[in-house]
Amino acid sequence: MSVVSGIRRVIHRTREAAGLAFYTKPRRFPVQYDMTVHNGSGVTKRFYIAIPIPPNTDHQRVIHEPMFTPSPSEFRTDERYGNRYAVHQWELRPGDIAEFHESFVVHVTPFRTQLDRRLTIDAYADQKGEAHAAYREPNRFVRSSDPEVIRLARELRGSETDVFAILKRFNRAVVTRLNYGDPIPGLYSSHDALTRTVVDCGGFDTLLAALCVSQGIPARIASGFWAVSKAKNKMHAWLEIMLPDGSWIPADPSVEHLAWAGRTNKSGRLGFVGSDRVVMSYGCDIPVQLGGNTRSADILQHAFVWSEQGPEGLDVNTSFKIRKVWRG
User: Fold this and answer.
1) Is residue 317, in this structure, part of any structural domain at all?
2) Distance CA 77, CA 50 (A)
3) Largest pairwise CA distance in the chain
4) Is 189:208 a contact under the CB 8 Å cutoff?
5) How many domains are there within the chain?
6) What torsion do the CA atoms of 148, 151, 155, 160 make, to the nearest 10 degrees?
7) How far apart are CA 251 and CA 268, in angstroms?
8) What distance in Å separates the CA atoms of residue 27 and residue 179, rounded to the nearest whole number?
9) Where's the Transglutaminase-like domain (predicted)?
10) N or C: at which end does the chain have fewer Cβ atoms within 10 angstroms?
């Protein structure tokens, strides 16, 4: 870390600790979420589009239920993670463009967890039920059964049994091991994170989640958008890790990596994410039901489009805009 980046990091953390950074206060965001689908093929395309509906959580509350234009044909909830989404069935002639709009108001508060409690990893054995079973299992992206993931997790953990000590070791390894870049609209897997030179925020998240799940610690990807300006906001993903008492702790290893390098003023680290983001869905490898078929979406961040005729020629664009930022 250079001297300049070190100074930037100190200023960044000082402003955050003093409550001067905007993301340390509750925020209310009126959101305009717009999607266009262009048929660039030479044939008429029939397709389904699933538009994510923001969830209510302990740190995010949807004040007004989303309004859709045009009206969706149905609303559904995925059976694995409980994400809600609106479904449109549509037909486009060659060269035509369809527009879909979702508007809502969401109240977001900073999410902070103290890392000084004494919790042992053996306490996870007391968790019962299937409510969060999906966050304990490997999937296409969180490859917690990968031998290399298991080897790395065991090497980092050693004989440690304190949950926060283990999480700090896993988080530090991901933050320092990976390099940020090459953003994609989908999701890098934990295997990608271990084998590629650079990955985007999703690669940081899936690797940290895989390390946790391999040791019996539930973890879930959170995907959404930054809410830092009235202009078009970029997509972002982070994660949440379940503690033995059933509560969640946030982590944002890609932002923590960038902050260490003095390359961002956004919030995000193990134990804290601010009110500068809106979550649209949880989990990854999400089952989406469209037209009587179940399809797998990497994440439900952008609208998910599926056609029996194949995706060729269907160009989807998403715009996530904050109409106005209100405090409190």
Assistant:
1) no
2) 11
3) 62
4) no
5) 1
6) 120
7) 7
8) 31
9) 193-255
10) C
Residue of 182, 180, 202, 181 whose CA lies nearest to 191: 202
- Copy the structure tokens of residue 2: 């250079």
163-177 helix and 147-157 helix, angle to the nearest 10 degrees: 120
Enter the tokens of residue 114.
Answer: 């103290």
- Judge whether 272 lies within some domain: yes
Residue-number span of the structural domain to which 123 is assigned: 110-281
Is the residue at 242 inside a domain?
yes
Q: Which amino acid is at 281?
A: S
Amino acid at 10: V
Residue 167 falls inside a structural domain: yes
Give every CB contact of residue 188 below 8 A, 6+ residues apart in sequence: 141, 196, 199, 200, 202, 203, 206
Secondary structure element (H or E) that encloses residue 255, with its range: helix 253-260
Work out the pLDDT band at 11, boundaries 50, 70, 90. low
Structure tokens at 180: 């940020």
**What digits encode the pLDDT tens for the residues 14-42?**
677 667 688 999 999 999 999 999 999 99
Is 238 in contact with 219 (CB distance < 8 Å)? no
DSSP 52: E
Among candidates 314, 282, 287, 317, which has minimal Cα distance to 303?
317
pLDDT bracket for residue 228 (50, 70, 90): confident
Residue labelled with tokens 């988080």: 171
**Rounded Cα distance, 317 and 17, in Å:** 38
Q: What is the CATH number of the domain that holds 143?
A: 3.10.620.30
- Residue 22: which of 9, 10, 12 has the closest Cα? 12
CA pair distance 302, 281, nearest whole angstrom: 10
CA gyration radius for the chain?
A: 20
Report the C-alpha gap between 77 and 80 in whole angstroms: 9
